[in-house]
Amino acid sequence: MAKRKQPVRYQATIIDRHTGHAERRLVDAKDILLPSRKRHPSLTEEQVQRAKALWGRIARSALPELDEATWVEGFCMEQFIDVELSIWERIADVWERVRHDPAIRKHDPTDAAQAVVSILSGLMDVPSHHGVSKDFVTLVRRAAADVHATASL
Predict the structure, then answer these.
(1) Hey, where are the domains in the chain?
(2) What is the distance between the alpha carbons of residues 110 and 12, in angstroms, rounded to a whole number?
(3) pTM of this structure
(4) Is residue 26 within 8 Å of residue 11, measured between CB atoms?
(5) Alpha-helical runs (H) found in 1-153
(6) 19 vs 151, residue with greater confidence
């Protein structure tokens, strides 16, 4: 029997609009709503170029439901745009380091990229949500440590 594909899920804080009560739980990525108000009217030209580069490096694979313009515009919602871009640049560095590994290539590229993003975002139970092995998770975490060590030099 074919394995049922698990939805991409993230640990999120859900805030009830009416009561203000906050609760942490796993939510499907498709159910996450981005804030409707931009924190910044636009990105600098350098930020636009960084965001567009990230689109080709990781976002196109990990977030196929978004187009490039939506991806770039999404950074206007971040409080600290350059910090968020740096985080995604590290994620892209790890993805580029591991994506050709046989343990990664045996997975659908979108599933593999989403799993890498989830691992690096701190999702606890990646194997059950993405159908990847613990070896896959270990490989990605080792690559992240290597990228971090290289960036710190």
Answers:
(1) 39-152
(2) 22
(3) 0.71
(4) yes
(5) 45-54, 60-62, 68-74, 81-98, 102-105, 109-120, 126-130, 134-152
(6) 19
